[in-house]
Amino acid sequence: MKFKLLAVALLAFVVSACSSFPTVAERKSSEQPVIFPDYVGVTIPSNIAPLNFSITGAEYIKADVAVDGGLVLEVEGRKGLVDFPLEEWHALLAKSAGKSLSVTVSIWTKDEPQGIEFKPFEIHVSPDQIDPWIAYRLIEPSYEGWRQMGLYQRDLTSFVEKVLVDNSVNNEGCVNCHSFKNFSPDEMMFHARGKGGGTVFFKDGKISKVSFPEIGPKKQGVYPMWNPQGRYVAYSSNNTVQAFFGVGDQKIEVYDKDSDLMIYDTEKGEMLVDQRFMDSTRMETFPAWSPDGKALYFCSARPVALPEKRRELRYDILRVGFDQERGQLLEQVDTLYNSREGGLSASFPRLSPDGKYLLYTSSDCATFPIWHKQADMAMIDLQSMQAVDVSALNSTQAESCHAWSSNSRWVVVGSRRLDGRFTRLYFAHVDKDGVCTKPFLLPQQNPQHNTWRLKSYNVPEFILGEVKLPIDQVKALFE
Question: Measured between alpha carbons, how far is 384 from 301 in angstroms, rounded to an integer?
C-alpha cells in the first residue's frame, strides 16, 4: 500500500514518495463505487479506527480524500484494498470533526486497464467520540459443540484485539455473561461454567469467585447488569432449553421454561429476592438499571406451553422502583411496552446513560431474537413514552444484542445482515433527538477479516479502557 499526504488548509501533512501506480483514470462513472464494507454515507466518531475497504476485481485502487473541497489524503493499493495509514487517518479525523470527508475512488481492472473514476461519496465525521474499547464474546453461531471460547476486547481506535479471558482458565468450560460497572475496565464480572464454575468478580486488581447456587434462592444468575451506584448487580435466573425443527426457515428456537429476577449485594455477599418476581405466574428476564440506579427495567411474559405455543410467547417491558439504601424493590410496577398491544416480543432493554431512551430488540415471539430473521431494533422516548423511529438501524436479517456508549451518542448493534448466519458488530450515531444514522461495520485492517472469522460477536459492551485481568489469579480459582 502506498499513500500520499497533501498539505491543505489546516492539515499540515507531509507528501510521501512518488507513486508507481497509474495516476488518472480515463473513464468517469456517474455511479458511486460498491465497496466492502459499505461505508458510503456513514457517520463516524472522530476517534475511530481507519475505515479500510476493498473492491472485488480491482488490480489497482486509489482513494482521494477531500475536506472542504481540498485534497488532503491519497491512498493507493493493490488487489482492490484501501488501507489508510493509522496516524494520518487520526490526524485527518481530528481536523475534520463536524465536517464531511469526500472520497473519490478509482480502480484499474483487467477489463478496464485505463481505469474508472467513480462518483465521490461522503463520510461524515461527528465531533462525538466513541468509547475507546469494546468487549464481546466470540462464539460459533449455532448449537454445535465447541472447544475454545472466550471474551475479547478490541481497541476501537486501532485494530488491536486482545483476549480478555478465555476458557483455558476454567477447564474448557463456558465463559460468558460479562458486565462492567459504569463502563470501567477496573471493575467487572463474568461467569464461568463447568468444573469449579462460578461468577468471577474483578475489583481493585483482585479476583474473587462467588457460587450463586450456594446462597439465597440457590439459583444461577445470568444476564447481569451493574447498578450504576455500584453495590448491586441484577441477574435473571433462566432455565433455558433448545427446540429443533425439521421444516421451515427457522431450524432452532431457544426459550426459557422459567426465569426469575435476583439482585446480588456485593458488599454483604447476599442475594436479594422479591417473591413477586420469583413465582411461576410470570417469567422475568434481561434486567437493566436506570442511569440513576433508582429503577430496574426487565422483560416479563406469561408462561405458555412450550415449544408448541412458542409463537404465543411474547414479552413486555416492565419497570419497578428500587430503594438503594435498603436494597429493596418498590411496590409500583409500570408497563413501558405491552406486547398484547404492540403484537411483538421485547428483549434486551438498554437505557441510554443520559436517561432519555430505551433501546430494545423486537421480534415476532419468544425471548432469543438471534434465531428470528425479522428481529429489529426498537426504541422508546422515556420522556414522552412514545416510540422512536430507529428503522435506520435495521436490516432484513436479525438484529439482536446491543449497547450504548457512555456519552449516549453511539450504539453498537449485533446484526446478521451480511450473510444471515454470523452476528457482526455495527455502530451508529444517535443524536439528542434520537435520530439514528446508517450503521457501519466494525473496521478491520483487512476488510475480508469480517468474512474469514467464522464466529459471531455476542453481547458487546463499551468500556473506557483496556481490561487487565490478573489471569494467574483467575486460573487459581479453578484449580
Answer: 24
| Amino acid, res. 156 | L
pLDDT tens per residue, range 38-71: 999 999 999 999 999 999 999 999 999 999 999 9
Look at residues 390, 377, 400, 462 and name the one whose alpha carbon lies nearest to residue 430.
Answer: 390
C-alpha distances in Å from residue 255, one per residue of 225, 239, 458: 20, 8, 17
Buried b / exposed e across 240-267, counting CB within 10 Å, b at 16+?
eeeeeeeeeeeeebebbeebbbbbbebe
- Identify residue 422 by its one-letter amino acid code: F
User: Using CA atoms, how far apart are residues 71 and 21, in angstroms rounded to an integer?
Assistant: 18
Cβ atoms of residues 62 and 54 within 8 Å: no
- Collapsing DSSP to helix, strand or coil, 449 comes out as helix
What's the Cα-to-Cα distance from 79 to each of 5, 200, 242, rounded to whole Å?
21, 46, 44
Q: How far apart are the first and last CA of the chain?
A: 48
Residue 38's CB: how many other CB atoms inside 10 A?
16
A 10 A CB-CB count for 82 gives 24
Gap between the Cα atoms of 349 and 402, Å rounded: 9
Q: Give the Cα separation of 98 and 429 in Å (integer).
A: 13
Q: Which amino acid is at 13?
A: F
- Which DSSP symbol is given to 326? T
d(CA 73, CA 103): 9
Task: Give the whole-angstrom CA distance, residue 275 versus residue 286.
Answer: 17
pLDDT (tens digit, 9 = 90+) per residue, 184-229? Answer: 999 999 999 878 889 999 998 999 999 999 998 999 999 999 999 9
Report the DSSP beta bridge partners of residue 28.
Answer: 117
Interior angle at CA 434, CA 433 and CA 440, nearest 5: 130
CA 334 to chain centre: 28
Cell of 372: 428470528
Is the pLDDT at 241 greater than 50, yes or no?
A: yes
Domains in the chain, please, with CATH? 2-126 (2.60.40.1220), 133-476 (2.120.10.30)
* pTM for the full predicted model: 0.93
State the DSSP string of 201-227. Answer: EEETTEEEEE-GGGSTT----EEEEE-
Sheet holding 386-388, edge to edge: 345-351, 357-363, 376-381, 386-388
* Mean pLDDT across the chain: 91
Go through 277-298 and write b for each residue having 16 or more CB atoms within 10 A of its CB, e for each that does not.
beeeebbbbbbbbbbebebbbb
